[in-house]
Amino acid sequence: MRRVIVVDDEPITRMDICEILREGGYDVIGQAADGFDAIEQCKNLKPDFVIMDVKMPILDGLKASKIIIKDKLARGAVLLTAYSSQEFIEEAKNIGVSGYIVKPIDEKSFLPNLEVILSKQEEYEALEKKYIKTNQKLEDRKRLDIAKSILMERDKMTEKEAYTYIRSLSMDKRCDMGKIIDIIILSGETNA
């Protein structure tokens, strides 16, 4: 069940959105009437998503969404607004909102649109995690190659011998290979 905070300065609209979401199987964990309160609730409640109006007092939805996204206070923000001008849409794209739904809310299309938006956000998150993991593996491989080259040059080892030495040292010392690699690289830098 996705945990959601609903933010709208109109109490009746906020209540309607909450009711639609609850009936659709969402867990509405909080409500706010302005962007400032939305940020504070996100800090405290850690929702999956925030559904937020754009035009609100104190702090508007675009500025609040920018902070929520930048500080990773929620997995995503979906703007729900009566404003459909290109200016608002461009700003929403630039700050990285997950979706933009134009009011008035049509119950028949609201939940399906929201489902697609949130599904795409989850796909993006999975790709981002895969990218980070792949990038880390690449960085680990680069560090291993640097450590092997230090051993090959300094101790006149072959590449295979250098790798075997690193692996054996890791097992003998019951230490992660990454730490052994870091020590070899550090020792290679101090000898330079």
From TrEMBL:
GO terms for biological process: phosphorelay signal transduction system. SUPFAM superfamilies: CheY-like. Keywords: Coiled coil, Phosphoprotein. The modification 4-aspartylphosphate is found at D53. It comes from the Bacteria. Pfam families: ANTAR, Response_reg. Residues 117-144 form a coiled coil. Residues 3-118 form the Response regulatory domain. InterPro entries: ANTAR, CheY-like_superfamily, Sig_transdc_resp-reg_antiterm, Sig_transdc_resp-reg_receiver, ST_Response_Regulator, WH-like_DNA-bd_sf. Residues 124-185 form the ANTAR domain. One of its GO terms (molecular function) is RNA binding. PANTHER family: TWO-COMPONENT RESPONSE REGULATOR, TWO-COMPONENT RESPONSE REGULATOR ARR22. This is Response regulator receiver and ANTAR domain protein. It comes from Sebaldella termitidis (strain ATCC 33386 / NCTC 11300).
